[in-house]
Automatic annotation (TrEMBL):
This is Uncharacterized protein. It comes from Catellatospora aurea.
Length: 116
């Protein structure tokens, strides 16, 4: 307690060492700790939200890129089917097993999308 003129009295070494045992000090530490935890939790939630947004944007780009690649494969395969006697590099690419598989997967995906 403060004395009459407002100065804090000197505390002996034993009392200074044990001030943390007072209920008021324990409550202050608990409240400060709770405040710190709440601030960090809020920061974590904001960081998670930003990460989720970035993940969703990246997934949209991946889906778009794959759809574009599939559509290109379909166009290439269809063009090759229309002129089978043409022997250019694009024709050889259009009959490549990998490109044909991409085109077929894209066609199946479009059919599923149209169905639903």
């Amino acid at each position: 307690m403060r004395d009459r003129d407002g100065a804090l009295p000197k505390i002996c070494a034993h009392c200074v060492n044990h001030q943390g045992e007072r209920l008021e000090r324990q409550l202050e530490r608990a409240l400060a700790h709770e405040r710190m935890i709440r601030e960090r939790l809020l920061a974590c939630r904001e960081s998670e939200s930003r990460a989720q947004t970035k993940l969703e944007e990246a997934n949209k780009k991946v889906v778009s890129a794959l759809a574009s690649r599939g559509a290109l494969a379909v166009r290439l395969v269809e063009a090759a089917e229309r002129s089978r006697d043409h022997g250019c590099a694009a024709q050889r690419l259009a009959v490549d097993e990998y490109v044909v598989r991409w085109a077929e997967n894209h066609r199946q995906e479009e059919r599923r999308r149209d169905f639903w």
